[in-house]
Amino acid sequence: MIVEFKSNGRERPAVRAWPEGTDPATEVQRFRVRMPPLGPDETVEYLPVVQRSGLIVQRLPARSTRGIQAPLTEAAPDTAAAAPAAVPRYQWASEFLGAFTVKLINPPESFGPGPDGVHITYYIESGEIHGPKINGKVRGGDWMVLRRDGVGIAESRITYQTDDGALLLSRYYGIFDLGPDGYQRAVRNEFEPVPPLVLAPQFITSHPNWLWLNRLQCLAVGRATMADLIVRLDIYAIRAGQPLPSSGLPRMDGPALIGDIH
Description:
The structure is a single chain. The chain is mostly beta strands. The protein has one helix and 18 strands. The protein has one helix spanning about 180-185, and strands at about 1-5, 10-15, 20, 30, 45-50, 55-60, 65, 90-105, 110-115, 115-130, 135-145, 150-160, 165-175, 195-200, 200-205, 215-225, 230-245, 260. Strands 8-10-11-12-13-14-16-17 form an eight-stranded antiparallel beta barrel. Strands 1, 2, 5, 6 and 7 form a five-stranded antiparallel β-sheet that branches. The chain starts with a strand and ends with a strand.
């Protein structure tokens, strides 16, 4: 079946109709057709034509309809409160503790692709830290798991031997980003030349001169040069401060922030 039609008296291209089952009461064949939408005040006359093998079998009675203008409806007012913009609520400070530089043993221990990624162990050949707060020698290593997305999960155990003879144990956790193809390249023993490192060191010590370190959460940022396996990190103590005036939160009693205030 096709449906011929006229719009405002002008003939338009016919539209094909497709069989859609039979009427259960009369067993008459049904057809479905998708017609172009009507415009306001458009008058259309439909002329269904039954065909078989391209020949006209029957012309069915014509029908007509007229398009109308849909009434405009006012949009309901938006009564939902706008979400408040997210803004910082607290001061915080970063205090530079020292510049950490280590030379790693080359080659590292690589355990190849495992079920959870490539395991690589980097041992420190030599190292030191120099800064306004910590000065001394460094030894230890890093046990890294390189995920299949190229992100290395660093887990380090570091011993600092300070210039005054104290021993500081530090644990580092963080991200060693070797790039989206870092996993595939590491399997071939290829690496991004100078990938970034972001770590979160904590310290443990019993030495009376260094007990203040036990209370710190630190941040270490830097890069590793993979050609010579030298890691350079700047280590900062991070401290939380008072609520900002714009937060509307009450201020609390506490010591003044030490370091660069943000």
